Amino acid sequence: MTYNFTNDYSEGCHPSILNALINSNLEQQNGYGEDFYTQKAITIIQDKIEDKNADINLVAGGTQANLLVLSSILRPYESVISAETGHINSHETGAVEATGHKIETVYSSNGKLSPDKIIPILKRSSNYHSVRPRAVYISNSTELGTIYNKEELTDLYKFCKKNDLFLYLDGARLASALSAPSNNMSIKDIAELTDIFYLGGTKCGALIGEAIITTNNSLKENFKYNQKLRGALLAKGRVLGIQFFQLLQNNLIFKLADHSNLMALKITKALESLGYSFLAQSDTNQIFPIFPNNIIQILKKEYEFTIWKSIAPDLFAIRLVTSWATPEKVVDKFIDDLKKIS
Amino acid sequence: MTYNFTNDYSEGCHPSILNALINSNLEQQNGYGEDFYTQKAITIIQDKIEDKNADINLVAGGTQANLLVLSSILRPYESVISAETGHINSHETGAVEATGHKIETVYSSNGKLSPDKIIPILKRSSNYHSVRPRAVYISNSTELGTIYNKEELTDLYKFCKKNDLFLYLDGARLASALSAPSNNMSIKDIAELTDIFYLGGTKCGALIGEAIITTNNSLKENFKYNQKLRGALLAKGRVLGIQFFQLLQNNLIFKLADHSNLMALKITKALESLGYSFLAQSDTNQIFPIFPNNIIQILKKEYEFTIWKSIAPDLFAIRLVTSWATPEKVVDKFIDDLKKIS
Amino acid sequence: MTYNFTNDYSEGCHPSILNALINSNLEQQNGYGEDFYTQKAITIIQDKIEDKNADINLVAGGTQANLLVLSSILRPYESVISAETGHINSHETGAVEATGHKIETVYSSNGKLSPDKIIPILKRSSNYHSVRPRAVYISNSTELGTIYNKEELTDLYKFCKKNDLFLYLDGARLASALSAPSNNMSIKDIAELTDIFYLGGTKCGALIGEAIITTNNSLKENFKYNQKLRGALLAKGRVLGIQFFQLLQNNLIFKLADHSNLMALKITKALESLGYSFLAQSDTNQIFPIFPNNIIQILKKEYEFTIWKSIAPDLFAIRLVTSWATPEKVVDKFIDDLKKIS
Amino acid sequence: MTYNFTNDYSEGCHPSILNALINSNLEQQNGYGEDFYTQKAITIIQDKIEDKNADINLVAGGTQANLLVLSSILRPYESVISAETGHINSHETGAVEATGHKIETVYSSNGKLSPDKIIPILKRSSNYHSVRPRAVYISNSTELGTIYNKEELTDLYKFCKKNDLFLYLDGARLASALSAPSNNMSIKDIAELTDIFYLGGTKCGALIGEAIITTNNSLKENFKYNQKLRGALLAKGRVLGIQFFQLLQNNLIFKLADHSNLMALKITKALESLGYSFLAQSDTNQIFPIFPNNIIQILKKEYEFTIWKSIAPDLFAIRLVTSWATPEKVVDKFIDDLKKIS
């Protein structure tokens, strides 16, 4: 039987969430996020980011969060800037464009954006013949497993403010980023250095759910109208509220992310000692080692993963993703197997 | 402590669903609806409707289902016809229009559509200066608790086919409709007498989830692309699959609907014997009794419900909704309370 | 050979416009409305409405003007209120909905809106489950030839301001309205009693062209971006500028409207003296006399017009439209013909 | 007084068009393209491309044509492939995205597309997580003045057919392309080697107007509905019909293009003999010579043009555009001026 390293949503959710669902199951709660648990989860997040006025709304999935946020904050003639590798550009079937907005893309070898990469786009958009860039989309961790440090995010945020750009952070794997060994930011820093971001649950131990957190006052108005019109307002909002309440108590979400990062790091270190190199430097739960094809073929008999990119003839970067549920013994066996065939 | 008759999504889900989530929790499953449970649920539905080629996709909520279906089946210049009371027209914040399509509305006292109500709309749309009606939206049960019988749906479907209209049925409460005492249809009939419909889970015992069932071949192509671009494709599709698998086994969903209908019916009969009348005739889980204001004020001290419509000075129709979770003793107490004050 | 009373765009344009096109033809002018003539036309309009800060943009046609204005001023979850007979609702193939916005309609026997008709719509839109009405669409003259007087428009505008609604006036036939015998408004009044409106050229003597006039400061920002993205910004903006410059000099547009109104009025008076009645009371260039079918059949041999509405068995309202180009002798002959057969 | 080489829409139109407008001015014609002249123009185009079944519709401008065509032929999850320099990508304020569709871009040094440039895009779009490329957008002549030869277009069209892609050609300057010395195609070839294209009038001697020509049967259905809903159906369609009727008679449009090409070519040859080089090789009416900054500063005193691109410190490519109206004596003076300062 094979083990699946393809993604971090192959399992269900942390067992304590199921317990919380059971314990609250027959309570009558208001719909649409006006339930006790959602309100509690909101308060905890507001406390963590030390912003009592943050507007917080829970939705079911990441593509939904992205299209909802961007269609809410952009006027029809405004665009969003993203790395080419950005999830909204590469992996969401045109969901943002379907709401009417152009994504302007930038090449980035490590999946991250910085002011120097954005400046050329601002320069070419001078008048009403071009879309007006108004938002910058980043993900942390990125689609390549890399993360922003505080200095980079500060630079980017200051640049955005100076240029009248909203900074939006896709945090599908934010817990993993903030738990990475090389990370030097808290979730409070994230809140202060962006205009709007989401803290992802689906890929960090929840069944489903992402918490959209808006700190910029100008973006808060009537968000729930937008949420409803995009089909992103669940009747049983409690299902999301209970999960985030549970994930945020005792910092469970960050503990789960810690585990997933450690599992990936263990593989990384082993591969490094075996002399393998990587497509991008990652200490989060996505890693991209480079293997010759014959190694890949042997691994495929026992493990599932994505062949990410051709590097040279007969040489490929693969993607391995660990999660809160990845057993350490599977990681150890994977390392052993690799040692044998390397 | 008050009891809430406001809607049928105040509680969590049937306990067996939580058990199923627990039992499957650590299994690794493919994402995006390609998991074992979703495929199993699909097969059960295909069996029930005796159509092995039905295209079936699970989504999180009803508004999402409606906007996804209608934006998928309509061309930019095509409209959908709905009763004024239709959920897409009255209660979804313009979600369908946000995908670019006009809803053409018809007055209907009981929330149902029939060919004679649709003909005037077809007549006024003669050429390229008007939208082209291409779909008919109905709900069963309707927003007023009423249901279609087989003869009515057959008439409507034949009319649609003759006039090149797709018939789409919003089945948020389809289980309730098909379990109603006056119902004479099976889910197989529904499948044969519509082009596309959904079987609702959220309001019938699931945490979240609606199963969109497409029987018209011309509407099946690339549905999953549309699902993804509307943000309606969950990474952990298993969460939906497990629920529908559970709800469909041993016809659990219909048994739950049966209970909710019986609870409403018990109230209806008691009210009738007390001499009260109703806004619409319903034997499903939504009923609309008409009360003088003083009765309403007394009831409000112990029960929550929606004041639906002003009928006359000092006289209002209220909406009472029961669910799979409504305890019979609450219903009995409600009836007793009413007897005392009537 | 028949004469065509079907509409007011059967002919080309007033000859002086063609002369102006010839005289300016080889001048080099900037594109996109930045030419001398457009700027001149803008200044004249600003002078007429005594508002130097009015934002004025010229577009090619009426449906384009409507979809551009409404998509510019509404947020995704906001709707526009219109009479059922409103052009945007009945005759534009869902152009407004195609930009993502719901039109909420009201029945009105004379095609006009007033606060009492709007209040029920505002009442039913209480929270994020419904679209939020944000604009009111009216036309003057209406699709039934009727016009607003100053008292009515003042009431409506005050009501809109009190309820945070933008008032948008479709002026496809505004020149005709302002030239009607019963009119008591100037174009300055129109500017002061709306937030945004357009002065139509196509139906009042131009080849093509409508002037969109924005007086509400909050609606002015980046309008040209919206204009471009809807395909409504002509490279040779001069073509529109020259026409409006010509139409506005010496009030030509109002003189032309005057003629078209007079021709309709002459017919109206003759029909009244012959005992015919009308669907709506109009002293503009659209009239809706009611004839028995046999009269209509005889008229059809020599005249083209639209059969508008069935009034009773064998009795129909027809629409007759006159224009700046309608020869008085045709009108006289039409009246004579009617006298003979009545 | 300066001369303006900034674009090919600084003047009005060929005088014969104004004559035709005068001569037809008082004729009563049907609206919406159902007039005699539009029908005549359609027949001439059908004759020229030897396709009696071609569907032909006239619209006012190029951005409008592009957004109308692409929104008509694509399903919501489908994208269009374009060169980065493509007008739809760089110069239309997100008009295509505003209709809901992603543009997938390719770098091309000469503004042209070929199968090898498209293949990588097709490869990365494998399933429902990515948009599905369905159309290829090219312009001829391109935004860099280059043109396709018959072999290139044949290759591209065959590739498109093999890969289920519609080939759409933006012909804003098609007359110029087909009149270029190096061209080896007829308009019939264009019709046979694309699925849909437009023949541009605005930049080739008309006041306004582009003729959209659809040869692929699957794209013809209900095009006029789409035209109306995008605000692209003029009431006085005659204005477009008369112009195309005039431009097509005796091949006037190609004669005008011939003149504009010759004027550009005369400048090109003079500059080559003076030793200047060019950004792209063009024998159409747009040329991109490279000048040192001091030359540009001198030229700017007497001529207007666009500084297109920085080539090196102190070295820039400028864009010079000639038109049907460019006087040869201005061209001669420009060449003389350059000789003096070079």
TrEMBL record, chains A, B, C, D:
- Single Gene Ontology MF annotation: lyase activity
Q: Which SUPFAM superfamilies match?
A: PLP-dependent transferases
InterPro entries membership: ArAA_b-elim_lyase/Thr_aldolase, PyrdxlP-dep_Trfase, PyrdxlP-dep_Trfase_major, PyrdxlP-dep_Trfase_small
Cofactor names from the entry are:
pyridoxal 5'-phosphate
Question: Which GO BP terms apply?
Answer: amino acid metabolic process
The family database entries (PANTHER family) matched by this protein are listed as: L-THREONINE ALDOLASE-RELATED, LOW SPECIFICITY L-THREONINE ALDOLASE
For this UniProt record, the keywords arranged alphabetically read as follows: Pyridoxal phosphate
| Keyword Membrane appears in the UniProt entry | no
Q: Which Pfam families match?
A: Beta_elim_lyase (PF01212)
Domain annotation Aromatic amino acid beta-eliminating lyase/threonine aldolase: ranges: 21-288
Identify its protein family.
Belongs to the threonine aldolase family.
Its protein name is Threonine aldolase
Q: Which superkingdom is the protein from?
A: Bacteria
